[in-house]
Design goal:
Blueprint lengths: L5 E4 H6 L1 H10 L4 E5 L2 E6 L2 H19 L12 H35 L10 H8 L8 H4 L2
Parallel strand pairs: 1-2
Antiparallel strand pairs: 2-3
Helix pairs in contact: 3-4
Amino acid sequence: MESTPLIVPISELRLDAAGVLRQASASSTPVYVTQRGRLAAVMLARPMYERLIREHEILSRTVTGDLDVHLVPGVTLEEVLRRGERALQEERLAAARELAAEARRLEEREREPPVHRPECTLGELMQELGVEASWPGARDVAP
């Protein structure tokens, strides 16, 4: 059974914002804020908001084909969300592994001794690297 929605006029919100916020945090239902008798805003507890955002991401990416959830006829919304959550976790884990591997590669490159090429002039090195000499007197250095 769904609980009755909490409807709060904006005047009450102004008088007791902390109390309304406490109610929104403790409740599993949204708090509807009205102004002049019309809905003006909706307050959600943070976990509820984060769940809605996550579900929206899963459903949007499933519909556009960006997230592989393996849909079959008759599957429930809960199962779609569960599969989507798993797919998102796997995607994030793969991205984290890729970042860690890149960090290791960068660390290894930093540990390598610098290349010393005495036979190469500064101008030749700049040309090899595709760097344009732009300081005064640079023409004297360039080959």
